Amino acid sequence: MNNSYSAESEIDQPLIPPVAPPKGWAFLSGTWTGRIILINTIMFLISLWKSKSLGLLAIDVNVLIDLGAKEPVLLAQGEYWRLFTPMFIHGGILHFGFNNWALYVLGYQIEHLLKPQRYLLLYFLAGIGGNLASALVSTSVSVGASGALFGLLGCGFYVERSIQSKIKELTGSKLRQGAYTGMVVANIIFGLMIPQIDNAAHIGGLIVGITYAYVLLRLKPNRLLRQQPQKALFVGAIVALLFLGAGIIGSSPKWVHARLLSSVQSSETPQEKLFYLGRMIQLDPQDEMARVHRLVISLQLKQFDLASADFLVLHSRGNYDQRMEEVASELNQLGLFEASEWLNQRLGAKDQSL
Predict the structure, then answer these.
(1) Radius of gyration, CA atoms only, the chain
(2) Is the pLDDT of residue 4 over 50?
(3) Whole-angstrom distance between the N-terminal and C-terminal Cα of the chain?
(4) CA atoms in the 13 A half-sphere facing the CB of 207
(5) Residue 90 annotated among the catalytic residues of the structure
(6) Of 146, 162, 251, 298, which residue is the catalytic one?
(7) What is the pLDDT of residue 226?
(8) Is residue 77 classed as helix, strand or coil in its secondary structure?
(9) CA–CA distance, 138 with 256 (Å, rounded to integer)
(10) Is 37 in contact with 97 (CB distance < 8 Å)?
(11) Quick check: is 315 catalytic?
């Protein structure tokens, strides 16, 4: 039996040969990749129906939250299932189309490589890992299967690199970079170029996928790597603890409050500031400084209903009369006479009631 490898014979061949998936309904019903695509499609249709919009380009953010989006305040309030559900929800037709096309192209290849049970475990672990990383870094509402997809990419990348190392060990020849390596690099660059992309979720999913392949190849007999079960379990436990720590910190009220405050300070528009201030108040209704800040901005934008809600709360506590007078004066100096008069009238009404 000849066990030698020829580097030259591999140059024009993929390191992990692609496998043709079943066609049509056999794919959708008979593979886990197809079933996940079906679930994604059903959830997308529900989001369209709840949004009452056929524009398709962007789903109402409140609908996304209702369906299970990752939302930092709700995570901090104990809705930990939001680390799982976002991987089945998408924010618009382009987001839905790209992710499910990528899942169709990539998913079955990894499903065939790992077999269904291990594939499903990887998909869900990577999706959750991506959302844990996102919760630690980002205050944005986020949805999508990208963390899980990057987990599949990370697994393929590590297996591919292991094959390259084995062939180099046997032949002394270094092969070209493989397809999974190229996809990982291209997607990371692509993510860095577009601000709206949740890169933390991508990197989190990628780390889970690489770790999963590392552990699996050292636990199960194979022709690429010698078994090192203790090392594999140690590395897996360390990564699991890191992600657990990220989840605990990322969903703690103090951390979320600090991240939201940072987002308020870095927001470029009053509307963005209002959004994050609203999240801060939802997280802690007793946050008086957030209410003062939101009151000022809502008056500047002439959103008097919102301003009235904060005014009533602040005056029920009786500590902000002087600050409100200063705000009215500042609004007047800015030429926002309607807002200044609105605030002065309410301050006067309160004085008369006393």
Answers:
(1) 26
(2) no
(3) 100
(4) 20
(5) no
(6) 146
(7) 86
(8) coil
(9) 9
(10) no
(11) no
DSSP state of 16: S
d(C-alpha 309, C-alpha 290), whole Å: 13
Q: Which of 95, 202, 257, 293 is catalytic?
A: 202
Per-residue pLDDT tens over the stretch 81-129: 999 999 999 999 999 999 999 999 999 999 999 999 999 999 999 999 9
Domain ranges of the chain: 12-250, 253-353
Residues 182-202 pLDDT 10s? 888 888 887 777 777 889 999
Output the six-digit token pair for 22: 């079943």
Q: pTM value?
A: 0.86
**For position 54, what pLDDT does the model report?**
57
Q: Where are the alpha helices (DSSP H) in the chain?
A: 7-10, 24-30, 32-51, 61-67, 72-76, 93-114, 116-137, 146-171, 179-193, 199-219, 229-250, 253-266, 270-283, 288-300, 304-317, 321-333, 337-353
Helices 304-317, 321-333: crossing angle, 10 deg rounding: 150
What is the Cα–Cα distance from 191 to 142, expressed in whole angstroms? 14
Give residue for tokens 């996304």: 64
CA distances (Å), 214 to each of 119, 139, 232, 245, 340, in order?
Answer: 14, 31, 7, 21, 63
Q: Give pLDDT tens digits for 227-262.
A: 899 999 999 999 999 999 999 999 999 999 999 999
Give the integer Cα–Cα distance in Å for 193 and 136: 21
Region 12-250: CATH code: 1.20.1540.10
